[in-house]
Amino acid sequence: MVFVFPFLWMISTSLQTFQETLAFPPTWIPAWPQWINFVAAMRAGPFLTYAGNSLIVTFSVIILQIIVMIPAAYAFAKYRFVGKEILFSLVLLAFMIPGQVTFIPVYLMLADWGVINSLLPQIIPFMANAFGIFLLRQYFMQIPQEIIESGRLDNASELKIIMKIMVPMSMPALATIALFSFVSHWNDYFWPLVMTDSANVRPLTMGIAMLRETEGISNWHIIMAGNVVLVVPILIVYLFTSKQIVKAFVYSGIK
Fold it and tell me: How far is CA 85 from CA 76, 89, 96, 162, in A?
């Protein structure tokens, strides 16, 4: 109930009238669900633009992370090369340093490139996922070397081994990392706030936050309707990836 209560309260408030949001004791079940609140929330600003920006940024980050993460994790798990331990230590160090510590030098670098106030600064700094490289590397290490050697004996290239052996056998870990990344960047507010100042390139999170300015701080039924719209895509993605996440934590052997 500690986790579920805020969501129930959000959904209940999003379907109430203005008078019901001010009632005491609080109203849990609206007398008549006000679906018009969602229409009002979407008309309060260019929310289709906000939603499109969020989709572009989130899926671009996930795709780029996968492109970087898979070969990096494979190299750390199955190859021996000079400086491997040092490089992996740097990956772990990047995983431990919060983004708020590095955002000033990253901002200055992107400003020098002239890409501030666009979608690029919301994508480029997150192309590499240190946590994903670490988790996927641990998963790759569970796959016996004999399976990889058998692929090489069949004249399979390294790329084919990765795509036909490593990736399918590590799909639960990839789905888990993708879900975490989706939630993180779909809900991101701090980074777009710093990197953008135009509604044309801002994500949905900032659009929902601006509802308090356009609708007034007391119109909680409209604000909560916007928050429900923000949460729904996360729930949909979770429904499609939940089985893979469970498999990632109950993984018991190689088929």
Answer: 9, 6, 17, 22
What is the full DSSP assignment across 48-74? HHHHHHHHHHHHHHHHHHHHHHHHHHH
Residue 79 DSSP class: -
Measured distance CA(177)–CA(64) in Å, rounded: 13
Query: In sequence order, which residues have a C-beta less than 8 Å from that of residue 160 and are 6 or more positions away?
Result: 151
For residue 229, what pLDDT band results from cuts at 50, 70 and 90?
A: confident
The pLDDT, as a whole number, for residue 133 is 92
Two tokens, residue 218: 């007391």
C-alpha distances in Å from residue 154, one per residue of 6, 143, 151 = 55, 18, 5
SS3 category, 81: coil
Residue 212 clears pLDDT 80, i.e. is over it: no
Torsion of CA 71, 74, 79, 80, to 10 degrees: 90
Contacts of 203 (CB under 8 A, 6+ apart): 50, 53, 54, 57, 122, 186, 188, 192
Residue with tokens 């990889």: 148
Could you tell me the pLDDT band of residue 253, with boundaries at 50, 70 and 90? very low
DSSP code of residue 80: -
Q: Which amino acid is at 44?
A: A
Give the integer Cα–Cα distance in Å for 251 and 7: 31
User: Is residue 168 classed exposed, middle or buried when 0-12, 13-18 and 19+ CB atoms within 10 A define those classes?
Assistant: exposed
Token pair of 147, please? Answer: 């399976």
pLDDT bucket at 22, cuts 50 / 70 / 90: confident
Confidence of residue 54 (pLDDT cuts 50, 70, 90): very high
